[in-house]
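F.,

This is the one I mentioned.
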């Protein structure tokens, strides 16, 4: 009898002691979805999710307390356009194809893991990988992180890029064969586009990526619509690399989910994107990085012409009210800079275009989450959502550059770094 009583006491005592509960004392909390702030909050995290948030949250016994009372807290950052496994060779006469002719899929995956971990420590808790990943290397990076082998951000993958014949290569002699199929799927009719979408979904991708205008020919409206139809029925979104012109008209008409780059979009095209709720992921590259990348393939005007065009397009897109998600497309390496440093170097472009700090942070959190269809799980700080939390000494709604000083990162409830 006595034993049973003791047993029952222990049984009921256990839930009283908080297990896997973290209480963050927050000096200030920003909500990018509304642009509002709240001071002196407690964020209660249980396992991988936010349980409660507010000024008068009771902290249970046994909870781990993290004191960030002199910091500002934000939802984890998101980047909707990364190439985790890719470093583009710059300078000299290196052809565009060097990166996939010289590196195995395994090596690409290892680089992807390294970059994923760097991004997470800098505060990027969710990223959308948009292809060029060496025969689905990022699928394995994603799986290894999901299996708990490594810490890393939530990764959405695109697998092989679907493009008209030739991928993003031009003028490869026929004797060389279609070696670009290591990174791309050739698709030249609506039916071939459907087949390519199915192949990617089969291998595990979360988003379908098309390249629409990297060649003298481009996808028709019918081909774009085939991709959208097939992808949407498979529960995937469609992201399309396109700079402007008739190709962009077709992409917008086809009803995709996002245009990537879009450097030469007209006001009329931006208006139509707004009407249709299509996101712009502008990959608004800073001048310094354009200088390093060079004008690959002769597609672009020189950096001194292109850089102001990018700022102008971002300014117009913001003025017109197109939905925007932050995306960087950083694929270069610069001595003494991490990849995340290079990504945050896109922030001054947004400032130069006159986009206010709260709107920039929104594009990096709740807006990006909406585009990626993870907004029911991530992108805001609210009960029931994943505990993807970052903190920094300054208020990013006042100065977006505060993001460079992120010194606390929590991913799915696990503390990755702290001040
Ligand atoms: Zn890209």
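My design for it:
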């Amino acid at each position: 009898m006595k034993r049973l009583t003791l047993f029952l006491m222990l049984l009921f005592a256990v839930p009283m002691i908080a297990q896997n509960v973290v209480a963050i004392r927050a000096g200030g909390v920003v909500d990018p979805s509304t642009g509002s702030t709240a001071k002196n909050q407690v964020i209660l995290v249980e396992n991988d999710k936010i349980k409660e948030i507010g000024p008068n949250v009771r902290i249970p016994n046994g909870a781990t307390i993290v004191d960030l009372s002199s910091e500002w807290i934000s939802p984890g950052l998101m980047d909707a356009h990364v190439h985790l496994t890719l470093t583009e060779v710059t300078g000299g006469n290196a052809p565009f194809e060097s990166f996939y002719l010289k590196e195995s899929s395994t090596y690409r995956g290892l680089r992807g893991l390294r970059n994923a971990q760097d991004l997470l420590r800098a505060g990027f808790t969710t990223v959308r990988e948009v292809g060029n990943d060496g025969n689905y290397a990022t699928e394995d990076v994603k799986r290894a992180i999901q299996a708990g082998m490594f810490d890393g951000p939530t990764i959405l993958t695109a697998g092989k890029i679907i493009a008209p014949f030739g991928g993003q290569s031009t003028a490869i002699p026929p004797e060389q064969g279609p070696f670009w199929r290591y990174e791309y799927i050739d698709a030249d009719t609506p039916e071939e586009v459907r087949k390519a979408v199915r192949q990617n979904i089969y291998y595990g991708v979360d988003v379908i990526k098309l390249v629409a205008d990297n060649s003298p020919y481009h996808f028709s409206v019918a081909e774009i619509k085939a991709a959208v139809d097939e992808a949407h029925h498979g529960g995937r979104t469609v992201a399309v690399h396109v700079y402007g012109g008739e190709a962009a008209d077709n992409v917008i008409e086809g009803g995709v989910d996002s245009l990537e780059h879009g450097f030469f979009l007209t006001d009329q095209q931006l208006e139509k994107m707004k009407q249709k709720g299509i996101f712009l992921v502008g990959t608004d590259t800073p001048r310094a990085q354009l200088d390093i990348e060079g004008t690959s393939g002769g597609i672009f005007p020189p950096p001194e012409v292109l850089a102001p065009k990018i700022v102008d397009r971002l300014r117009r897109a913001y003025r017109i009210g197109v939905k925007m998600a932050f995306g960087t497309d950083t694929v270069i390496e610069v001595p003494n800079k991490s990849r995340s440093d290079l990504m945050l170097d896109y922030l001054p472009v947004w400032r130069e275009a006159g986009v206010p700090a709260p709107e920039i942070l929104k594009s990096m959190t709740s807006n990006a989450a909406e585009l990626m269809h993870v907004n029911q799980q991530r992108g805001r700080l609210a009960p029931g959502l994943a505990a993807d939390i970052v903190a920094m000494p300054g208020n990013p709604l006042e100065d977006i550059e505060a993001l460079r000083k992120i010194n606390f990162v929590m991913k799915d409830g696990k503390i990755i770094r702290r001040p």
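The pocket of zinc ion is lined by residues 81, 83, 130, 329 (CB under 6 Å).

Talk soon.
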